[in-house]
Each structure stands twice: as structure tokens, then as C-alpha cells.
Amino acid sequence: MQQKVVVIAGASRGIGRALALKLAAQGAKLALSARTYVELAALADEVKALGGQAIAVSADMTAQNDVANLIGETQATYGRIDAVYYGAGVGALSGALELREADLDRMWETNFKGLFYITRAAIPHMLNNGGGHFVVPVGILGRHVMRNSGGYSASKFAAVAWIKALGEEFNKRGIRFSLLYLGGVNTSFWDTIEMRVDRTKMLSAEAAADVVLYALNAPSPAVINEIVMQPESHQFI
Ligand SMILES: NC(=O)c1ccc[n+]([C@@H]2O[C@H](COP(=O)([O-])OP(=O)(O)OC[C@H]3O[C@@H](n4cnc5c(N)ncnc54)[C@H](OP(=O)(O)O)[C@@H]3O)[C@@H](O)[C@H]2O)c1
Q1: Is 74 in the pocket of ligand 1 (CB under 6 A)?
Q2: Is it true that domain 5-229 has CATH number 3.40.50.620?
């Protein structure tokens, strides 16, 4: 990833934060994004202290203008965009009759609509540069449903459909797409999920970030289309 320009949406916490620190160590140039600027700025300082390069751009992925600004600022700073990790995501797991419409909207806007915006904003730059790569940790609930996951899975299945269709459209033009079906990862994602889980049995954010790196580092012409990785034992108790 030496000198590669990577946009990390959802960089302030969880998998995205772990990924930023690992990419910095590999010599990538980073555009760190999330809604909360103060966390991004602290992370950018941490990356620079490691000898890496980073800009911090506050953006709400549910706002098309914010997404356009993130992509525009990255292009203006570094002159190209090689990869996008789309880790902005939210979850609400509850029964079909209990799921609040506001939560359904929030999941749809963040998990699908933001991905729609960022792919459409970044792809033209990637085509101009001769290629690019999107890595999307849709999660195992983007592949299988379980009780109470209907709304969340719907947003993630939509993300899968969008990415697979983009693959069909752009994979002959140098753009790669990697879908990661991860099981439970112990991050702040679970702080607001109403479900009894044993977080000590989950994957670490660092282990999940290593999977992202594996996909990003696949030597051409190999493309890692999909990866499934789950904790060894079932995490729900
Ligand atoms: N954790 C798991 O078990 C797991 C498993 C499989 C897949 N996934 C998926 O992996 C992705 C990353 O999960 P994670 O565990 O790293 O989550 P996390 O620790 O909760 O981090 C989520 C990140 O997304 C940002 N974010 C949330 N809403 C946003 C918005 N509207 N606009 C811009 N940024 C936003 C958050 O920052 P701000 O709040 O500051 O914006 C934060 O940086 C999600 O899509 C999740 O569905 C997670």
C-alpha cells in the first residue's frame, strides 16, 4: 500500500480506526472520515506521529454534499484515489413489530445510501487514474438473516446488490470490489445493539482490519471478491 491513497469512511472508531493505523504503517496516504471531527483529528495526529500522511475530513455519509466534499478534498490533496473502505455503518436489531421506522431509515441512509453516494463520487476519479478498489465490510448479516435482523439485513443485502452490480459494470475497467462478510467484531457498533452478546468471543477490530488489508494487498490480477470470517464460537448467548 506504499503511497496508495485510501479513503476510510468510518475511520474514527472500530475497524476503520484499526485499519488507518495499519495502513499508515504500510506507507499509505489516508483521508480519514466520519461525522465526529475531534476523533478524526486525534487519529490523524497519531498517523502522522507514526510517519504517515493523513487528512481528516468530517462528513456525514447520508449527505450527498458531504460525500462529494470528502472525495473532492482527497483528490485535491493527493491527486488520485486508489481505494475506498466504506465502514460507515449503523445497526438496530429488533423484532419486526418493534423496529422503529426512524431506525430503519437511519440504517438505509447510512448502510446503503452512503455507499451509493461514495461509489458514484469516487468511480470517475478512479477511471481517470486507471483503476481503484472498494472494500465494504457488509457483515455476515449481509449474507444470511437471523431473527430480528430484517431491517439491518435489508440495508446490507442492498449494499451487496449494489456492489455486485458495480463489479459487473466496472471490473473490466480496472475497478475492484471486495465484500467482507464478517461475524461479530468487538467495536462500538455493539454499544447500542439491544441483544445479549458475549463481546469477549468476538473478533477484534485489528483482526477485521487485517482482512481488509488482505483484500487491498491482493497482487494484480487477483481480485478478492468475497471473504467470510466469523468468530470461532457463536458469539450470541
Ligand atoms: N462490529 C461488527 O460486529 C460488524 C460485523 C460485520 C460488519 N460490520 C460493519 O462494518 C462497518 C464498520 O463497523 P465497526 O464495527 O467498525 O463500527 P463502529 O465501531 O461503530 O464505527 C462506525 C464508524 O462509522 C462512522 N459513522 C456512523 N454513521 C456515520 C455517518 N452517517 N456518516 C459518516 N460516518 C458514520 C462512525 O463515526 P461517527 O459516529 O463519528 O460518524 C464510526 O467511525 C459497519 O458497516 C458495520 O455494519 C460490523
Answers
A1: no
A2: no
